[in-house]
Amino acid sequence: MKIIFLGAPGAGKGTQAEKIAEICSIPTISTGAIIREAIKTGTEMGTAAKAYTEKGALVPDEVVIGIIKERLANDDCKNGFILDGFPRTVPQAEALDELGVKIDYVVDIDVDDADIVERMGGRRVCEACGMSYHIKYIPTKDNKTCDKCGAKLIIRKDDQPETVLERLKIYHEQTEPLKAFYAAKGILKSVDGRGDIAQITESILKSIKA
Ligand code: AP5
Description:
The chain has nine helices and eight strands. By secondary structure, it is α/β, with parallel strands linked by helices. Helix 1 crosses helix 9 (197-207).
Protein backbone atom coordinates (compact mmCIF):
# COMPACT_ATOMS: atom_id res chain seq x y z
CA MET A 1 0.00 0.00 0.00
CA LYS A 2 1.56 3.27 -1.13
CA ILE A 3 -0.36 6.28 0.12
CA ILE A 4 0.07 10.04 0.00
CA PHE A 5 -1.51 12.23 2.68
CA LEU A 6 -2.45 15.63 1.30
CA GLY A 7 -3.88 18.51 3.29
CA ALA A 8 -3.24 21.97 4.64
CA PRO A 9 -0.60 22.50 7.30
CA GLY A 10 -2.18 21.29 10.53
CA ALA A 11 -4.92 19.27 8.84
CA GLY A 12 -3.87 16.24 10.86
CA LYS A 13 -1.65 14.44 8.33
CA GLY A 14 0.97 13.55 10.95
CA THR A 15 -1.62 12.52 13.55
CA GLN A 16 -3.45 10.23 11.12
CA ALA A 17 -0.28 8.93 9.43
CA GLU A 18 0.92 7.59 12.82
CA LYS A 19 -2.31 5.63 13.24
CA ILE A 20 -2.71 4.30 9.71
CA ALA A 21 0.99 3.33 9.57
CA GLU A 22 0.58 1.24 12.70
CA ILE A 23 -2.63 -0.43 11.48
CA CYS A 24 -1.20 -1.19 8.01
CA SER A 25 2.34 -2.00 9.29
CA ILE A 26 4.02 0.40 6.89
CA PRO A 27 6.40 3.29 7.63
CA THR A 28 5.46 6.95 7.56
CA ILE A 29 7.80 9.24 5.70
CA SER A 30 7.40 12.86 6.78
CA THR A 31 9.57 15.31 4.86
CA GLY A 32 8.81 17.91 7.56
CA ALA A 33 10.12 15.58 10.30
CA ILE A 34 13.23 14.68 8.26
CA ILE A 35 13.95 18.38 7.69
CA ARG A 36 13.39 19.26 11.37
CA GLU A 37 15.79 16.48 12.43
CA ALA A 38 18.41 17.75 9.95
CA ILE A 39 18.02 21.28 11.35
CA LYS A 40 18.39 19.96 14.90
CA THR A 41 21.55 18.02 14.14
CA GLY A 42 22.96 20.84 12.00
CA THR A 43 23.60 18.91 8.77
CA GLU A 44 24.38 20.84 5.58
CA MET A 45 20.82 20.21 4.30
CA GLY A 46 19.34 21.28 7.64
CA THR A 47 21.30 24.51 7.69
CA ALA A 48 20.14 25.31 4.14
CA ALA A 49 16.49 24.41 4.93
CA LYS A 50 16.22 26.31 8.24
CA ALA A 51 15.51 29.76 6.80
CA TYR A 52 12.76 28.41 4.54
CA THR A 53 10.86 26.43 7.19
CA GLU A 54 11.07 29.14 9.84
CA LYS A 55 9.38 31.70 7.61
CA GLY A 56 6.80 29.16 6.44
CA ALA A 57 8.17 28.82 2.91
CA LEU A 58 8.69 25.56 1.04
CA VAL A 59 12.17 24.10 0.87
CA PRO A 60 13.36 23.99 -2.80
CA ASP A 61 11.98 21.06 -4.82
CA GLU A 62 15.40 19.57 -5.63
CA VAL A 63 16.26 19.29 -1.92
CA VAL A 64 13.04 17.46 -0.91
CA ILE A 65 13.09 15.28 -4.03
CA GLY A 66 16.63 14.23 -3.03
CA ILE A 67 15.43 13.41 0.51
CA ILE A 68 12.57 11.26 -0.82
CA LYS A 69 14.73 9.43 -3.38
CA GLU A 70 17.15 8.43 -0.65
CA ARG A 71 14.44 7.45 1.85
CA LEU A 72 12.37 5.35 -0.56
CA ALA A 73 15.45 3.27 -1.37
CA ASN A 74 15.41 1.89 2.21
CA ASP A 75 14.34 -1.70 2.75
CA ASP A 76 11.43 -0.80 5.03
CA CYS A 77 9.62 0.82 2.08
CA LYS A 78 9.38 -2.43 0.10
CA ASN A 79 5.85 -3.27 1.28
CA GLY A 80 4.51 0.25 1.09
CA PHE A 81 4.61 3.57 2.92
CA ILE A 82 2.72 6.73 3.75
CA LEU A 83 4.11 9.98 2.38
CA ASP A 84 3.22 12.76 4.82
CA GLY A 85 4.01 16.19 3.39
CA PHE A 86 5.35 15.05 0.02
CA PRO A 87 4.65 15.92 -2.76
CA ARG A 88 3.72 19.52 -2.09
CA THR A 89 4.14 20.97 -5.56
CA VAL A 90 3.32 19.70 -9.04
CA PRO A 91 7.06 19.34 -9.94
CA GLN A 92 7.49 17.15 -6.82
CA ALA A 93 4.56 14.95 -7.92
CA GLU A 94 6.05 14.67 -11.40
CA ALA A 95 9.40 13.70 -9.89
CA LEU A 96 7.68 10.89 -7.97
CA ASP A 97 6.15 9.64 -11.22
CA GLU A 98 9.57 9.79 -12.87
CA LEU A 99 10.99 7.62 -10.08
CA GLY A 100 8.45 4.98 -11.15
CA VAL A 101 6.63 5.04 -7.80
CA LYS A 102 3.07 3.79 -8.27
CA ILE A 103 0.82 5.40 -5.69
CA ASP A 104 -2.39 3.51 -4.75
CA TYR A 105 -4.27 6.29 -2.98
CA VAL A 106 -3.96 10.00 -2.28
CA VAL A 107 -5.93 10.88 0.83
CA ASP A 108 -6.85 14.54 1.09
CA ILE A 109 -7.64 15.50 4.70
CA ASP A 110 -9.97 18.46 4.43
CA VAL A 111 -10.09 21.12 7.18
CA ASP A 112 -10.99 24.79 6.70
CA ASP A 113 -8.52 27.58 7.38
CA ALA A 114 -10.20 28.87 10.56
CA ASP A 115 -9.93 25.44 12.22
CA ILE A 116 -6.32 25.14 11.06
CA VAL A 117 -5.38 28.41 12.77
CA GLU A 118 -6.94 27.19 16.03
CA ARG A 119 -5.20 23.82 15.83
CA MET A 120 -1.77 25.28 15.17
CA GLY A 121 -2.18 27.74 18.05
CA GLY A 122 -2.64 24.84 20.46
CA ARG A 123 -0.13 22.38 19.02
CA ARG A 124 2.71 21.23 21.24
CA VAL A 125 5.38 18.80 20.09
CA CYS A 126 7.84 16.68 21.99
CA GLU A 127 11.36 18.05 21.58
CA ALA A 128 12.81 14.53 21.74
CA CYS A 129 10.52 12.12 19.86
CA GLY A 130 8.49 14.64 17.81
CA MET A 131 5.10 13.34 19.02
CA SER A 132 2.40 15.94 18.34
CA TYR A 133 -0.27 17.00 20.86
CA HIS A 134 -2.86 19.75 21.26
CA ILE A 135 -3.42 21.56 24.57
CA LYS A 136 -7.21 21.20 24.21
CA TYR A 137 -7.92 18.29 21.84
CA ILE A 138 -5.01 15.95 22.55
CA PRO A 139 -3.55 17.04 25.88
CA THR A 140 -0.77 15.19 27.69
CA LYS A 141 -1.12 14.46 31.43
CA ASP A 142 0.40 17.84 32.38
CA ASN A 143 0.57 19.64 28.99
CA LYS A 144 4.29 20.19 29.69
CA THR A 145 5.90 16.83 29.00
CA CYS A 146 5.43 14.06 26.44
CA ASP A 147 3.25 11.12 27.55
CA LYS A 148 5.30 8.79 25.36
CA CYS A 149 8.89 9.60 26.38
CA GLY A 150 8.66 12.22 29.17
CA ALA A 151 10.68 14.91 27.33
CA LYS A 152 9.70 18.59 27.24
CA LEU A 153 6.90 19.86 24.98
CA ILE A 154 7.74 22.83 22.78
CA ILE A 155 5.96 25.10 20.27
CA ARG A 156 7.22 24.68 16.70
CA LYS A 157 8.86 27.87 15.35
CA ASP A 158 6.63 27.71 12.28
CA ASP A 159 3.47 27.64 14.43
CA GLN A 160 3.66 31.39 15.15
CA PRO A 161 0.33 32.91 13.94
CA GLU A 162 1.84 35.01 11.11
CA THR A 163 3.88 32.03 9.88
CA VAL A 164 0.77 29.82 9.91
CA LEU A 165 -1.03 32.32 7.65
CA GLU A 166 1.95 32.31 5.27
CA ARG A 167 1.97 28.49 5.22
CA LEU A 168 -1.76 28.45 4.43
CA LYS A 169 -1.24 30.91 1.57
CA ILE A 170 1.52 28.75 0.11
CA TYR A 171 -0.63 25.65 0.58
CA HIS A 172 -3.50 27.16 -1.44
CA GLU A 173 -1.16 28.40 -4.18
CA GLN A 174 1.24 25.50 -4.59
CA THR A 175 -0.10 22.35 -2.93
CA GLU A 176 -3.85 22.48 -3.51
CA PRO A 177 -3.41 22.06 -7.31
CA LEU A 178 -2.24 18.52 -6.51
CA LYS A 179 -5.87 17.58 -5.82
CA ALA A 180 -6.68 18.05 -9.52
CA PHE A 181 -3.41 16.33 -10.49
CA TYR A 182 -4.36 13.17 -8.58
CA ALA A 183 -8.10 13.38 -9.28
CA ALA A 184 -7.19 13.14 -12.96
CA LYS A 185 -5.38 9.87 -12.18
CA GLY A 186 -8.50 8.58 -10.37
CA ILE A 187 -6.74 7.96 -7.04
CA LEU A 188 -7.83 10.98 -4.98
CA LYS A 189 -9.93 10.28 -1.86
CA SER A 190 -11.28 13.16 0.20
CA VAL A 191 -11.90 12.77 3.91
CA ASP A 192 -13.47 15.27 6.31
CA GLY A 193 -10.67 16.12 8.74
CA ARG A 194 -12.88 17.79 11.37
CA GLY A 195 -14.05 16.14 14.57
CA ASP A 196 -13.08 13.02 16.41
CA ILE A 197 -9.61 11.67 15.58
CA ALA A 198 -10.66 7.98 15.76
CA GLN A 199 -13.58 8.64 13.42
CA ILE A 200 -11.28 10.33 10.90
CA THR A 201 -8.98 7.28 11.06
CA GLU A 202 -12.01 5.08 10.29
CA SER A 203 -12.97 7.28 7.33
CA ILE A 204 -9.43 7.05 5.96
CA LEU A 205 -9.37 3.26 6.34
CA LYS A 206 -12.68 3.04 4.49
CA SER A 207 -11.44 5.29 1.70
CA ILE A 208 -8.34 3.14 1.15
CA LYS A 209 -10.28 -0.11 1.68
CA ALA A 210 -7.77 -1.33 4.29
P1 AP5 B 1 5.45 19.66 7.79
O1 AP5 B 1 6.00 19.19 9.07
O2 AP5 B 1 5.05 18.66 6.77
O3 AP5 B 1 4.29 20.65 8.13
P2 AP5 B 1 2.81 20.77 7.55
O4 AP5 B 1 2.34 20.17 6.31
O5 AP5 B 1 2.69 22.22 7.57
O6 AP5 B 1 2.07 19.87 8.47
P3 AP5 B 1 2.04 19.93 9.98
O7 AP5 B 1 3.06 19.00 10.55
O8 AP5 B 1 2.10 21.36 10.45
O9 AP5 B 1 0.56 19.46 10.26
P4 AP5 B 1 -0.15 18.06 10.09
O10 AP5 B 1 -1.09 18.09 8.94
O11 AP5 B 1 0.82 16.93 10.17
O12 AP5 B 1 -1.05 18.13 11.39
P5 AP5 B 1 -0.85 17.47 12.82
O13 AP5 B 1 -1.20 16.02 12.77
O14 AP5 B 1 0.46 17.84 13.44
O15 AP5 B 1 6.48 20.65 7.08
C1 AP5 B 1 7.13 21.69 7.79
C2 AP5 B 1 7.94 22.51 6.84
O16 AP5 B 1 8.97 21.69 6.21
C3 AP5 B 1 7.18 23.14 5.65
O17 AP5 B 1 6.54 24.35 6.00
C4 AP5 B 1 8.31 23.32 4.63
O18 AP5 B 1 9.09 24.43 4.93
C5 AP5 B 1 9.15 22.06 4.84
N1 AP5 B 1 8.70 20.96 3.96
C6 AP5 B 1 8.19 19.75 4.35
N2 AP5 B 1 7.87 19.00 3.30
C7 AP5 B 1 8.17 19.74 2.19
C8 AP5 B 1 8.04 19.52 0.79
N3 AP5 B 1 7.54 18.37 0.31
N4 AP5 B 1 8.44 20.51 -0.05
C9 AP5 B 1 8.96 21.66 0.42
N5 AP5 B 1 9.10 21.93 1.73
C10 AP5 B 1 8.71 20.98 2.61
O19 AP5 B 1 -2.03 18.22 13.59
C11 AP5 B 1 -1.96 19.63 13.85
C12 AP5 B 1 -2.49 19.92 15.28
O20 AP5 B 1 -3.88 19.61 15.34
C13 AP5 B 1 -1.81 19.08 16.37
O21 AP5 B 1 -1.74 19.84 17.53
C14 AP5 B 1 -2.78 17.90 16.53
O22 AP5 B 1 -2.69 17.37 17.83
C15 AP5 B 1 -4.14 18.56 16.29
N6 AP5 B 1 -5.14 17.69 15.67
C16 AP5 B 1 -4.94 16.70 14.75
N7 AP5 B 1 -6.11 16.15 14.39
C17 AP5 B 1 -7.08 16.81 15.09
C18 AP5 B 1 -8.51 16.72 15.16
N8 AP5 B 1 -9.18 15.83 14.44
N9 AP5 B 1 -9.16 17.57 15.98
C19 AP5 B 1 -8.49 18.48 16.73
N10 AP5 B 1 -7.14 18.62 16.72
C20 AP5 B 1 -6.44 17.80 15.90
